[in-house]
Specification:
heterodimer; A: about 180 residues; alpha+beta; Alpha-D-Glucose-1,6-Bisphosphate, Chain A, domain 4; 8-stranded antiparallel sheet; 5 helices; B: about 120 residues; Arc Repressor Mutant, subunit A; two-stranded antiparallel ribbon
């Protein structure tokens, strides 16, 4: 197998507002290939399943405004995980806007805007996920499901860092003692 | 409570901006209700309500000192919540790494096709 580690960039996840989550990533490929990889079913089925997913029995993409998409993956425990939605805007190879639903929550819509910007031989990918309702967002988070945007996490990472600092400041013996 | 249920309660508790601000404040050290109410321009009862939600979620605990009952952050549920966030990120990271591999293949395919022409 070829070593490709030099082309690995890291993913940035941020929370621009209460209802939004932003994924940013750099790919070492021309924009038209990134667009192709993101929008053709034979390609999507290669990368969509990750971690605990075993296979992808359904990967349908009707890439036109008003066209539908549907991804179904099978988890290691046999459960099916389905996402689906509709394309709202398609500007190859730079922009796609689509709605996304997670099957158990058909009333909770998210709108995803993917933009691709080419700089040199790299493509800058941005995916802004917007929950149309705060309620939907919170339900999504409460469901604890993959793909649900983790928008309640404003400042959570900062808190985690602070916590780590607090824990290290406490003496190890005090931390280990049972509660009084 | 199962870990997943506890996570639900944690996220529900964290879904409110005031409660997240309280958590952020407590991450710098324990504080009394009075001290917590001050920067939020909120009444003490209003803050107490939020504290009860956080306490039920196990995110904070209250001291025994009857007068002051200082609040302090409990590290475990917060850690579970950040671990969930990390899992979300890891899931997408795994997808994008596969996507990197796919792009390399597409690039090579293009090169091969260009040579043929």
């Amino acid at each position: 197998m070829r070593v490709r580690s030099s082309n690995r960039e890291s993913l940035k996840v941020s929370l621009p507002s209460e209802k939004e989550i932003l994924l940013e990533r750099v790919f070492h490929a021309p924009r038209r290939l990134v667009f192709e990889g993101l929008t053709r079913p034979e390609h999507v089925s290669r990368w969509w399943i990750a971690m605990d997913d075993l296979e992808m029995p359904v990967c349908e993409i009707d890439l036109r405004v008003g066209g539908k998409w549907r991804y179904v993956s099978r988890a290691a425990d046999g459960g099916l995980i389905a996402f689906y939605g509709e394309y709202r805007e398609i500007v190859p190879p730079e922009r796609v806007v689509y709605t996304e639903y997670y099957e158990p929550f058909p009333l909770e819509e998210t709108v995803c805007t993917v933009t691709l910007e080419e700089r040199g031989d790299k493509t800058y990918f941005r995916c802004l996920v917007v929950h149309t309702t705060v309620e939907g967002r919170d339900a999504h988070i409460a469901s604890g499901m993959e793909g649900g945007a983790n928008l309640a996490f404003d400042c959570l990472e900062d808190i985690a860092r602070e916590l780590a600092a607090v824990e290290s400041r406490r003496s190890p013996s005090a931390a280990a003692s049972p509660p009084a | 409570m199962l870990a997943a249920e506890r996570l639900d309660v944690t996220f529900a508790a964290l879904a409110d901006p005031t409660r997240r601000a309280i958590i952020a404040r407590l991450s710098r050290g324990e504080a009394s209700v009075l001290e917590l109410a001050e920067p939020f321009a909120m009444s003490q009862p209003a803050i107490s309500k939020h504290l009860k939600v956080l306490e039920r979620a196990g995110l904070i605990s209250r001291g025994r000192d009857a007068q002051r009952r200082p609040c302090r952050l409990e590290a475990v549920p917060m850690r579970e919540a950040t671990e969930w966030l990390e899992r979300y990120r890891a899931h997408w990271e795994a997808r994008f790494q596969k996507f990197d591999d796919l792009l390399e293949e597409l690039k090579e395919k293009e090169k091969r096709n260009a040579r043929k022409k």
